[in-house]
Design goal:
This protein is mainly alpha-helical. About 65% of the residues lie in helices and about 10% in strands. The chain has 2 domains: about 5-205, Up-down Bundle (Alpha-lytic protease prodomain-like); about 215-300, Cation efflux protein, cytoplasmic domain (Alpha-Beta Plaits), CATH 3.30.70.
């Protein structure tokens, strides 16, 4: 793995988090101020929601910092798993936020409230700018890093909510139908909830030592079986050390024995280059082993 490139990538992520946190913290203060000024419960509630997003960004950023810590005697794989837990936490926070918004929206359908539409349009419009800019900061890394994807979804979701708020406020100004606001909130929340569910599901899969979505276990096994001298293999396990780092262990059955250390080094480097598995442990055996020792555990 190219450590220099990875370090530069992480520094870039750090700058993205700093800018996103500052932008959103300032916006929360402005939105809360206007909420108190015009007496809008909707703006105050949205400010509280945006405050949880700032917390989510801090959580994701802190997890990246933990992931940089070196392994020690108590944590021999390091602390990269923190990024997976942060992604799971952010997914859960999003789902809870969606549930709260839908609940409030359903209550408002039965009891519509007058909303200061003009003020809402301007404040929510500023929210679109702030949240879209924040989301763009995480655009590049969202596909390869589940933790960054969680931060991106937070910002993209808020941008979508702000856009929906502006649209509904304009429609209310034109038609006078206050019921538009909660209906739009429910529709947007359902879309956000679906993305949040996907994030939580992916993070939970990695937490349970699942094979990362970016790695095909059958492809890895086929490639290992094709190595010169390999007659069979067993105990093949692939899992995520963090949202950006994967590990593998396998027993290779080579009746002729391992040619030399260069064979193992080349195989490990190729696993990293081909499949993104940067931490590979290969054990070579001359004899035949029928199956993985964990096989009895998964039998019905």
């Amino acid at each position: 793995m190219n450590l220099t490139h990875d370090d530069g990538h992480r520094h870039g992520e750090g700058s993205a988090f700093v800018w996103a946190i500052v932008l959103n913290a300032v916006y929360v203060l402005i939105e809360a101020m206007f909420g108190f000024w015009v007496g809008s419960l909707a703006l105050l509630a949205d400010a509280a929601h945006n405050l949880t997003d700032v917390f989510g960004l801090l959580l994701a950023w802190g997890a990246i910092g933990l992931g940089r810590l070196r392994p020690n005697e108590r944590h021999t794989y390091g602390f990269g798993r923190a990024t997976i837990l942060a992604a799971l936490a952010n997914g859960i926070i999003l789902l809870i936020g969606v549930g709260m918004i839908i609940r409030e929206a359903i209550e408002r359908i039965g009891l519509p409230q007058e909303v200061p539409a003009a003020t809402v349009v301007w404040v929510a419009g500023a929210g679109i700018v702030v949240n879209t800019a924040s989301a763009l900061l995480f655009m590049k890394g969202r596909g390869s890093d589940l933790n960054i994807r969680g931060a991106f979804l937070h910002m993209a979701a808020d941008a979508a909510v702000s856009a929906a708020v502006v649209a509904s406020a304009l429609l209310m100004m034109i038609s006078g139908w206050t019921v538009i606001d909660p209906i739009v909130a429910i529709l947007v929340s359902l879309v956000i909830g679906w993305s949040a569910f996907g994030l939580s599901k992916s993070a939970l899969h990695l937490t349970m030592e699942g094979v990362p979505a970016s790695v095909s276990r059958p492809a890895v096994e086929a490639w290992l079986r094709g190595l010169p001298g390999v007659a069979d293999l067993h105990d093949l396990h692939i899992w995520a050390l963090s949202t950006t780092s994967n590990a593998l262990t396998v027993h290779l059955v080579m009746p002729g024995g391992c040619p030399n250390d260069a064979f193992l080094d080349r195989a490990a480097r190729d696993l990293d280059a081909r499949f993104g598995i940067g931490h590979a442990t290969l054990q070579v055996e001359r004899g035949m082993q029928a199956e993985c020792r964990l096989a009895d555990v998964v039998r019905p």
